[in-house]
Amino acid sequence: MKKLLGLLVFLLFIGCGPSKVNEDVTLHSRPVYKKEKLEGKETNGKESDGSITVDMSGDVKDASLLNAPDASFESVKSSAKDFKGLSSKERIAEIMTYLTSDELQGRDTGSEGIEKAASYIEDIFKSNNIAPYFYSYRDTLSNFDKPAFNIVGFLEGTDKKLKNEFVVIGAHYDHIGIIESVGGDNIANGANDNASGTTTVLELARHFGKTKSNRRSIIFALFSGEEKGLLGAKHLAKKLKAQNMDLYTMLNFEMVGVPLVGKNYFMYVTGYEESNLAGLGNLYAGSNLIGFLPKAKEFNLFKRSDNYAFHEVFNVPSQTFSTFDFTNFDHYHKVGDEAELMDFGHMDAVVKKSIPLIESISNSMTKMIKYN
């Protein structure tokens, strides 16, 4: 136990970057993309429940130190830190209520409703020090026949060298719009799918925009066209690749509105066996945060969300976090996917438990997340 505590203290020490960065982030201050990469020692994750330990050389080894029998959902949830109130279930409820309101008509790609959602997301970025990545927040899709936009925000890293490396934090904000009426309701409001992931990204943007605790640069991307075939993510991944962006990893959030049932981990990651993200993430979080869901492998969820476009284009660890386990939510692509069914306390825990994970990823001196 003393060795583990010493290791965690060491990792926290090397992960703490400068806390200040120029508030006036403009296109002129954006880093020049470099092809050379700051490579760490190769790591090999061994299939397990996601629990690993890392020695000082960066080698990854299987261990059970973090897989304590009492690492239940409740213990993970209750250990979430306050983080100075930058996230709260009340604020999450406010965002979710708007994104799932009938006024937005189910946020279908190219519709008037999703246009309102886009404006709302832009305002949140503006108020939390997240600059536009391009000349505006709106990234027009080149692969859709109506005007449609990703909303792409940018937070420059605080480290002179590491700011040239990027982490993408994403979720899709579109849904399926107007569908066949059930009980007089024909609006698929898409609370769990995927206002929940969108809200998570917005709250993470709020935290990092206020604290600027990221050595690497972060892109916060809200995708349109996911329900049409991952169109927004495919468009953006190709656009960023054409800039020779040095992308470290892409972390995506999808359907995180309700807690897992009967699991000893808090959320799962798609493509669990593809990389060492789960084990390393558990070490960073100091808890059994991420586990393996067999159904996610059975239904090949790794290829069914926006992470997959970045995997194909960049071939870097690109994976999706979720708490939908096929037993805890019965309203997928139905009019019943309403905000009132979401667990805002759980969503608050998703945000707060993801913060130390993302801070560690954005601040590590080498790229420790690797594909197996």
Tell me what you see in this structure.
The protein has one domain (2-17, 36-363): Zn peptidases (Aminopeptidase, 3-Layer(aba) Sandwich), CATH 3.40.630. It has 10 helices and 13 strands. Strands 3, 4, 5, 6, 9, 10, 11, 12 and 13 form a 9-stranded mixed beta sheet that branches. The protein has a two-stranded antiparallel ribbon with strand order 1-2. The protein has helices at residues 2-15, 73-78, 89-99, 112-127, 191-211, 231-242, 277-285, 294-298, 307-314, 344-363; strands spanning 52-54, 60-62, 131-132, 138-140, 149-155, 165-172, 177-182, 185-188, 217-223, 246-253, 267-269, 290-291, 318-322. The model is unreliable at 1-85 (pLDDT under 50).
Give me a quick take on this structure.
The chain is of the alpha/beta class. It is 33% helix and 16% strand. The protein has a single domain, classed as Zn peptidases (Aminopeptidase, 3-Layer(aba) Sandwich).
The number of distinct β-strands equals 13
Question: Element order, helices and strands?
Answer: HEEHHHEEEEEEHEHEEHEHHEH
The largest pleated sheet is described as: 9 strands, mixed
Global Rg: 19 Å
The number of domains is 1
CATH superfamily: Zn peptidases
Percent of residues in β-strands? 15-25%
**Do you know the CATH topology?**
Aminopeptidase
CATH class: Alpha Beta
Oligomer: single chain
Tell me the CATH architecture: 3-Layer(aba) Sandwich
Provide mean pLDDT, rounded: 83
